[in-house]
Write a structure and sequence with these properties.
- The protein is α/β, with parallel strands linked by helices.
- 40% of the residues lie in helices and 18% in strands.
- The chain is built from 15 helices and 13 strands.
- The strands form 3 sheets. A 6-stranded mixed beta sheet has the order 8-9-10-11-13-12, with helices on both faces. A 5-stranded parallel beta sheet has the order 2-3-4-1-5, sandwiched between helices. A two-stranded antiparallel sheet has the order 6-7.
- A hairpin with a 2-residue loop joins strand 12 and strand 13.
- Helix 11 packs across helix 12.
- The longest helix has 23 residues.
- It is globular.
Length: 409
């Protein structure tokens, strides 16, 4: 049971909106949807747009197709539940969902999953605004891996308080090493076999670019997009120069920007923008790009930073999706090139500064500099991969081992 099951169940009982579950390909969205169907005794009501029979059923009877499959209990539950996988590949998917929801809201609980960014397609006259809640499913983090997928999301205040304790759960160091080696996607992580991992990584990249990118965009230069993908791992952790990428690939600046935006919509990469606060001389242009599969990054320091970025991105998205507030993951950098890897904001106000280090337990000067000037409401933290046991305070800044910090997420 993944960390979104209970929040979605609660949403169905309260607002009765549709549940949109978005995230990277092969992150576990289908397994989550089928688990939700099983809990409602509606296992047959799974429809996948990529399956011919399901596609024909949806197109043939857009308003009545969920009723063609009976539930597994008699009498049936008061409200039935249906899961629609990859339905956003249907050109008229918003019209379909709008009609289905408006006609059967009191009789049907609708789960919509997809590896495309379901939230960015709500444009035009048939917007689904007010009819769905978005839930973003991320790869396994250390905390969820340690709990076998039975994790609940810690509240922001509880998370900040627990960081000060610095307790390292049993097995956390070994589990973190597994995530660094095999990534957080369920299949390679749970198999923990090099052959499975290598095969999965190759297929994941090919399917995302050769199928998803082709199906959801008008991009046809897929070979050049693959070349772009091979250039990104060595640029993780640094502000990304789109101009430099355009020069390397021999294409226009806007073309590279279009490709990067498409890869972000497919949850292959994500970008952190520099915080545009009121501090003088802050950098407000170039963002940093990270991969959802951190194993693509060869450099040890950059890979660790990518792993921390994935953990923080997951917890910020979860806090926002579950209603704790409007949380966003950014970073801090000024024109003198002082930089802190991560800044969590809440309603665009500094909430917590975080720096990732491989082994340096001395507080980074840039972290101290920005902490003194930004004064984030929940302090500043330096996460150290090796050499830091537990947590300690240094002039108001928490230095904590990576296993202890990431086990909370």
């Amino acid at each position: 049971m993944r960390y979104l099951v209970e929040p979605i169940e609660q949403m169905f009982g309260e607002s009765r909106h549709m549940a949109f579950v978005a995230g990277p390909r092969q992150v576990g969205k289908t397994t989550l949807a089928k688990d939700l169907l099983r809990r409602a005794h509606c296992e047959p009501n799974y429809f996948n747009w990529d399956i011919d029979a399901d596609r024909r059923a949806i197109v043939r009877d857009p308003s009545g197709f969920p009723g063609i499959r009976a539930t597994t209990v008699t009498p049936p539950p008061t409200r039935s539940r249906v899961a629609l996988d990859e339905i956003h590949k249907y050109p008229r998917w918003k019209r379909l969902l709008k009609g289905l929801f408006d006609q059967q809201r009191d009789a049907l609980e609708i789960i919509v999953t997809g590896s495309g960014r379901l939230d960015v397609y709500q444009r035009g006259g048939d917007s689904l605004f007010g009819r769905y809640d978005l839930f973003r499913l991320h790869p396994f983090t250390l905390g969820e891996h340690l709990r076998g997928g039975r994790q609940t999301v810690m509240s922001p205040d509880a998370f900040a308080e627990a960081l000060g304790d610095g307790a390292t759960p049993r097995g956390a160091e070994a589990a973190l090493a597994e995530i660094e080696r095999f990534g957080g996607f369920p299949e390679p992580l749970h198999s923990a076999r090099e052959a499975t991992f290598r095969r999965w990584r190759r297929m994941h990249r090919q399917l995302t670019i050769r199928e998803d990118l082709r199906d959801l965009t008008r991009i046809r230069e897929l070979g050049l997009v693959e070349s772009l993908v091979t250039l990104l791992p060595e640029r993780v952790g640094s502000p990304l120069s789109v101009n430099a990428l355009a020069g390397d690939l021999g294409v226009a600046f806007n073309t590279v920007k279009l490709w990067l935006d498409a890869l972000a919509r497919l949850y292959f990469v994500f970008e952190l923008r520099p915080f545009a606060g009121r501090l003088a001389r802050t950098l407000r242009r170039e963002g940093k790009t990270y991969l959802y599969d951190a194993t693509e990054v060869r450099d040890g320091g950059a890979r660790f930073e990518n792993v921390v970025a994935l953990h923080l991105r997951k917890i910020c998205d979860a806090w926002t999706d579950l209603g704790f507030g409007d949380y966003e993951l950014t970073y801090a950098r000024d024109k003198e090139k002082r930089e802190v890897d991560f800044l969590v904001t809440e309603s665009n106000r500094p909430w917590m500064l975080l720096e990732a280090k491989l082994s340096d337990t001395a507080v980074a000067p840039a972290l101290r500099y920005f902490a003194e000037r930004m004064r984030p409401s929940h302090g500043a933290v330096q996460i150290v991969r090796a050499g830091a046991n537990g947590a300690r305070r240094s002039n108001g800044i928490t230095v904590i081992g990576a296993a202890a910090a990431l086990a909370l997420i």
